[in-house]
Amino acid sequence: MSDASNGKLRTCVSFIVQQLQRGDLHSNSKGSSPFFLGINGIQGIGKTSLVSAIANLLEEAPYHLHTVVLSIDDFYLAHQDQLKLARTQRNNPLVQHRGQPSTHDLGLAASVLSSFRARSDVQIPIYDKSAFNGQGDRVPKEKWVKISGGEDRSIDLVILEGWCLGFRALDDANLVACWKQAVKTREDNQEYRGRLGYNRLEDLRFINEALREYDVITNQLDALIHLDAEDPQYVYEWRLEQEAGLRRSKGSGMTDQEVVSFVNGCLFALASLVNRGTLTKIDYPSYELFTERLRTGALKERERNQLRLVIGKERDVKAVLQV
Asked: How far from chain centre, in Å, is Cα 55?
């Protein structure tokens, strides 16, 4: 592990231990529910690797914390349900593929989290992103990960990671104001690199309203770590690297153009690739809409229960803030 990665890991673990030690959260008795930690980060920023390292370290001395890792990606709609959503919203380009609020099975996610909280038997779904040439699909239920509540009552920590975890919907007036300002900036400035100003208001409203339902997940979190890209345009290079690795390991996956359409949600297009004609501009505004509020704190019930790490292009930590 590089020095940068090791420093990021130690910072996160220190924060988690601090949160676990706060007396107003959870006791260490087996009768209490596990501690729920969320980790938010733009696609390709290194969430999966970091989460795995955190879980491995916390399992060891001196912590000895039994940890379970989940991803919001586990709860994507099954392929046929995603196709149905795309058909019913055929004029909304934001939901023609998995990724955005409305493309997850929130009932399933809430059920899994509730089972962990009650320390009952759990079946964790698995999502195969390489299925249907990269469109993805949920694997059959008999292949899901099974955890017996009777045998695993010692679970101390449940980590849930996801790119939109912790996002909160805007009120309509704020949404409209943000959209109008983005449109005005785009019309007045040929150098405008944001994506919000290229979207229809009705499409944004659909995503924003769908996001309200995600509170069923966010409200269960006891603490949150936000991996905040210093420049959101890094997401394109990072995500292209990820998908190339998936194609090598699985033999199938998204093309570069499909990666760009999937990433969406970012503020900027990757200028060098756009200029070469390899990629087209994107119409996805989610980071542009919801990140600023996330930076101020998604979990308002308690103070200083959110850690924000500003991440540079080489995935190194540029700043650490606790809110």
From this structure: 17
